[in-house]
Amino acid sequence: MNVLDIDYMLGLVPVLLGYLPLTLEMAVAGMLLALVLACLLAVVRVLEIPGLNAFTLLFISFFRGTPLLVQLFLFYYGLPQIFSVLTQINGITATIMGLTLHFSAYMAESIRAAIVGVDRSQTEAALSVGMTNAQLMRRIVLPQATRVAVPTLMNYFIDIIKATSLAFTLGVTELMGATQKEAAGSFLYFEAFITVAIMYWGIVELLSWVQRRLEARFNEAYQR
Amino acid sequence: MIAIQGLTKRFGDATVLDAIDLNIERGEIIVVIGPSGTGKSTLLRCVNFLERPNAGRIQVGDLSVDTTRARKKEILELRRRTAFVFQNYALFANKTALENIAEGLIVVNRWSKPKAHARAREILERIGLADKADAYPASMSGGQQQRVGIGRAMAAQAEVILFDEPTSSLDPEWVEEVLGLMKQLAYERQTMLVVTHEMGFARDVADRVLFMDGGRIVEQGPPEELFSKPKDERTRSFLRKILANQVEVQP
C-alpha cells in the first residue's frame, strides 16, 4: 500500500475550490426554483384545486418515482431529440431543471404536511377577527408551517448539493467533474476522491450548523 | 342591535339549527344553555360565519346579511363586528400575548404597529396580564391563555363577543379567573352571547338565558325565572341534571 500523498491532496484543494462556485450556484438555483414550485404544488394540494390537483399528483408521482439520473438524461439527451428548441440546452441548465423538478416533488409533500399540521383552530381564530385567507396564510399559517418544514427542507438542500455531482454525467465540469479530470491526470484516484468527499462533507456540516441555528430561532416561541 | 332571523344550518340530513330567531339589545348579556349537540356552538359559529348557514338573515348594527347569498366582503365585515372566544383558546402559537391581541388591529384594522401595541398593552392591563406581554402561549397556563383569547376579542371592538364554552377546556383551578374577567366585561355592559355550562355565571350576570334543544330555542327568560320555574319539561329535566352536578350554584 502506498502512503497517502498529502501534498497532492493539499495542492488539489485550491484547484477544486475554483469549481465550488458552480456547484453552489446550481444547488442554490435548484433549491430556490424547487422551493417556489413546491409551494405552488403544495397550495394546489392543500386547497384541492379541481383539475390541477390531479395533475399535481401525477407530477409528484413521476418525479418521486424515477431516479434523478434518469430524469437528467431524459432532459439533456432525450428531450432535444423530440423538441428541437431544446438542443440549445446546456448541461448546467439541464441540471438545474432536473434538480428543480425532482426535488420540488419531494418538497411539495413536506410543505403540504407542514401547512396541514398548523392547528385548524388558529385558522378559525384568524378568520374570526376578520382576516382574509391570504392574510391568515401569510401571518399565521405559513410562519408556523415554515418552522415545521425547515428541518426537512434543509435536508433536501443538502441532498441537492450532493446531487449536483450528477451534472458531471452531462459533461459539466463542476466539483465532481473537476476531481475526475484531476484524478485521471495524476492517477491518484483515492487522494482525489477522498479530498472531494471531505469538501462535500465540510459544506454539508456547515449547512447543518446553519440549520441548527435556524431551528433554535424558530423554536423560541415554543419553549415552556 | 343584533337581529337573527330564520337562521338554519344543516349538516347532511341533520338540521342543527332550525330557523332560529333571536334579538339582542346593545349591552345585553345572553347565556345559552342546553344539552350537547343541540346547536349552541353552531349558532355562535354561524353568526361569525365560521360555518356558512343554509338560510336566514343576520343583522348587526346597520349591516344586514342574507346568509344564503352573502358576499365575501359582507362576511368579512360581519366577522369584524362579531368577536369570538374559543373553547380551546386558539391563540396564535407563533405570537406573544401582546401580539395575539394586536394582530387583528394591525392586519384587519390597518393600525400602525406602535398604536396597536399601545392598545394591546392597555388590554393586557385590564385582563391582569401586563407582565405576560412577551410570553408565548406555550408558556402560559390555560387560564392565562383564555384571558388573552378574551383580550383578543376585546381588541376587535366588536359589537358583540361570542363565547363558545370558554371555560370547558380549563382545569378547575383556572375557571374562576376566566369567569371573573367575563363578569368584569358584563359589568361594563359589553354585549355578550355566551354558551356555557356554568349555571352560576348565568344566574349572576345574564340578562336572559336561552335554553336550546334540537336546534331550537325551547324557552328563554331572565335567569331567576328560567331557573326557578322553567315551563318546558325538557328545560326542567336538563336543569335537574346539570344543577345536581353544580352544588355551588345554590345560594
Automatic annotation (TrEMBL), chain A:
CDD domains: TM_PBP2. The keyword Transmembrane applies. SUPFAM superfamilies: MetI-like (SSF161098). It is found in: Cell inner membrane; Cell membrane. Residues 20-211 form the ABC transmembrane type-1 domain. It is a multi-pass membrane protein. Its main location: membrane. It comes from Modicisalibacter muralis. Belongs to the binding-protein-dependent transport system permease family. HisMQ subfamily. Keywords: Amino-acid transport, Cell membrane, Membrane, Transmembrane, Transmembrane helix, Transport. It comes from the Bacteria. GO terms for molecular function: L-cystine transmembrane transporter activity. This is Amino acid ABC transporter membrane protein, PAAT family (TC 3.A.1.3.-). One of its GO terms (cellular component) is ATP-binding cassette (ABC) transporter complex. InterPro entries: AA_ABC_transptr_permease_3TM, ArtM/GltK/GlnP/TcyL/YhdX-like, MetI-like, MetI-like_sf. The keyword Repressor does not apply. The chain crosses the membrane at residues 20-43, 55-76, 82-103, 148-168, 188-210. PANTHER family: L-CYSTINE TRANSPORT SYSTEM PERMEASE PROTEIN TCYL, MEMBRANE COMPONENT OF AMINO ACID ABC TRANSPORTER.
TrEMBL record, chain B:
GO terms for cellular component: plasma membrane. Keywords: ATP-binding, Nucleotide-binding, Transport. The keyword Nucleotide-binding applies. Pfam families: ABC_tran. It is a peripheral membrane protein. It comes from the Bacteria. Residues 2-239 form the ABC transporter domain. CDD domains: ABC_HisP_GlnQ. Signal peptide: none annotated. SUPFAM superfamilies: P-loop containing nucleoside triphosphate hydrolases. SMART domains: AAA. InterPro entries: AAA+_ATPase, ABC_ATPase_HisP-typ, ABC_transporter-like_ATP-bd, ABC_transporter-like_CS, MetN_ABC_transporter-like, P-loop_NTPase. Its main location: membrane. One of its GO terms (molecular function) is ATP hydrolysis activity. The keyword Nucleotide-binding applies. It is found in: Cell inner membrane. Belongs to the ABC transporter superfamily. This is Amino acid ABC transporter ATP-binding protein, PAAT family. It comes from Modicisalibacter muralis.
